Amino acid sequence: MSIRASSSLLLRRQTACCSSSVVRLAQSPLRSLSLPLHTTTQSLNRPAKPSSPPTTPSSSSPAPASAATTVAKEDVASTQPHAKRPHERARLAAFAARTGLVFSDPKLLRHALTHRSYAKAGVDPRSTKLESLGARVLELFVSEHLAAKYPKMPSDALASLVRAYSGDHAVQSVAATFGVPLVMLWKNTGTGTSAGSAPVSGSLLRSLIGALHTDRGASATRSFVQAHFLSRTVDVEAHLRLDQTNPMARLAGLVKSNGQIRPVSRLLQETGRLSSAPVFLVGVYSGVVKLGEGHGSSLRQAENRAAKDALCKHYLVQAKEYTVPSLR
How far apart are CA 74 and CA 65, in angstroms? Predict the structure, then answer.
């Protein structure tokens, strides 16, 4: 073999060896990167998604059921009587301690504070009977106390005075002082609406008085009425309605019914009769007994005030010692 042929054969073998090496090198690394062109482009342009933890079907399925169970329990608790819920029991205990209305049966306090309008929740409205009893008991104790304290007061004035001490306005005022609207159950409980709560609180305070009379008797109820109703400040003279009648004529009728001499007015003192601001002092007498006196800018005004003074001294005289009929 010639030298030229040997060199040509050696060159072809080297070329074939290099070609096979290049093929093997091209096939081995690029095989793992062989992705479609559109897939690679989308992957590069698409923002990376946050990795989410793996979800387990067994742990995710009970969650809605537990939430529904919690809501159902809250709905049931909101419709049950307040004595069955812990915070309401504490509120009732504080109310009882503050007012002294502590009963042997704790359920009695709950019944007395439940208005009949709350019956839609299935609560027995026993407060209706207690309210009727409490209204009579309250009026009885107030009436006998005032009748014994003012023995000469006319019947119409006494009835008006009893209403002032035990009527709706007085009962609602005492109920607000006790905080009855904060613990009572009625149709607007849980709605956040307080309109119309004053008459309801007054009715329930009468129920509490009836419950007190039922559980602890007349003595405790009388003490409660005297402490919270008869201790209130009332303008007793205003219930005589002396401004609606002729005081001098009314005094004349009273003196006549008592067999006394007809009353007459006498000028006691005066000053500035001819001035722009005169003052007269007049006394009303039955014989030599002075019944009353009054002053005014005119003789007529002074005489009327003197007659009113005489009537008030007669009707509003208070007995020093007295015993109410229920204690005799």
Answer: 14
Q: Which two tokens stand for residue 190?
A: 């849980």
Distances (CA, A) of 133 to 126, 127, 218: 11, 10, 12
Task: Give the list of residues 6+ apart from residue 248 with CB closer than 8 angstroms, or none.
Answer: 263, 265, 284, 303, 304, 307
CA neighbor of 99 nearest in space, from 157, 160, 158, 183: 183
Longest dimension (CA), the chain: 183
Helix, strand, or coil (residue 312) = helix
Q: Tokens standing for 65?
A: 């059921």
Structural contact between residues 112 and 92, judged by C-beta atoms closer than 8 angstroms: no
Cα separation, 280 vs 324, whole angstroms: 43
Q: Residue 265's beta-bridge partner residues?
A: 284
| pLDDT, greater one: 82 or 11 | 11
Rounded to whole angstroms, the Cα distance separating 299 from 266 reads: 10
d(CA 157, CA 133): 25
Residue 92 CA to residue 243 CA, distance in Å, equals 47
DSSP code string of 80-144: S-GGGSHHHHHHHHHHHHHH----SSHHHHHHHTB-GGGGGGT---THHHHHHHHHHHHHHHHHH
Express each pLDDT in 226-245 by its tens digit. 999 999 999 999 999 988 88
| Helix, strand, or coil (residue 163) | helix
